[in-house]
Amino acid sequence: MKLQRVLALVLRHLYLYKRSLARFMEVFYFPLLDILLWGFLTIYLQRFPGAVPGAVSFLLGALILWDILYRSQQGISLSFLEEVWSRNLLNLFVSPLTAGEFLAATMVLSLIKLGLTAAVTIALAWVLYGYNFFLIGLALVPFVANLIVLGWSIGIVTTAIILRFGQKAEVMAWGLAFLFQPFSAVFYPVSVFPPGVREAAWFVPATHVFEGMRSVIAGGGFPLADLAWAGGLNAVYLLLALAWFYSTFRVVRERGLLLRVGE
Amino acid sequence: MISTLSASSAIEVRDLAKSYRNIEAVRGVSFDVRRGEIVGLLGPNGAGKTTILQTLLGTLTPTSGTIRFFGLDFAGNRESILARVNFSSTYVSLPYSLTVRENLGIFARLYGAAEPGKRVQDVLDRLDLADLADRYASHLSSGQMTRVCLAKALINDPEVLLLDEPTASLDPDMADRVRKTLVGLRRDRNTAILVTSHNMREIEALCDRILFLHVGRIIMEGPPREITARFGDADLETLFLRVAREGRG
Q: What predicted TM-score, i.e. pTM, was given to this entire model?
């Protein structure tokens, strides 16, 4: 893997963010709307007798963490789609750039993107609602790392699907992560799921992160077991996603689909 | 038919075949392109030209056969070979939101240029594109985009250049300039060039040799004038029309 090639591709995408209002909005505008919407909703719900104690912490913490997962996935999928939209894929893949370097560059981009988004949402939550995200403490580091890795896995799978089925599958770039949201216990505990769904939900690494987060906020201590499960599942899913991506890339080369991805 | 000058061969293709399910797009094609040689890949639509170019670029895996660049097996040395090869086509583009200089700078880095900025300036000067350097790709005419894509193809000072209809969208003046650039590359850099085109006059003017494809096979090979003389045709266009319509030389 050549660092110069990875950085070249990162630079190519940073040029886009420097001067595109649409891409700038993707990083700042939508997270702002999310924080406003969920923040006001939380304040409203807290007025009712018997409201969940610490609802602001639960909901805003969950929202910020979910956004990290989503931006991580988008960093990979949308970077790939940018190349499809600009009919640049062929130029890239006839250069010495390898598929692994391409993925590495999109991972770096996803880190940059989610870093910016997280900074905005964390600051807004503090300014608007007095919510300090960092009160979650040291557990934040493995929480965030696990969500980033899950986002990468979903992003890699999405990219493989678009590679294989062309631009008609690009809706996956926005939709696939949300398929996991209802079963990740983002805004509610796993205990609300009916039997069957509850057991299945534990196979989603994000479920362990969000359960762990609620446990930390409720004063339950460092959720080691949850983090171990999330880390183990993520390792398996990332390997499977990479295996699937490389297998799809091989099929795409066999069938000459790279020329048709943009159709 | 096949040249045996391996020492000076930039590209060696042997028994190349590509099938998609029941369709045989390329059927056991063999040819060489020597260093400093300009070879035209001709044939009607569906003859297999694009398939051959894509296999040479590694974006399409052949069903069978071997491809060697500079004496090295392509399958086992893809990365190092592609660093010495480049490609341009009328049918690909460059990112619209970047300027010409930014686009070329990205590709200079992808191809491992030690001084990307200097390399970009050299290519801009060589192709007379300096006045477009800071213009966004979205503001280029199709002819200008084609020239910028050609500049991208020269960014690594390639030893082999693969071109898919490089002058298709250019006016006669620009097309002539591009042809002169290619001839200059061959003369100054000893670059091997494999080019597809539907412009038969261009092929006659530019190419040392042509490979005439029909339904996935090379049916004629040789210098353009020699081939037209051999088959008793006035020019390459007449020969092309006859082959495309009758399926034989």
A: 0.90
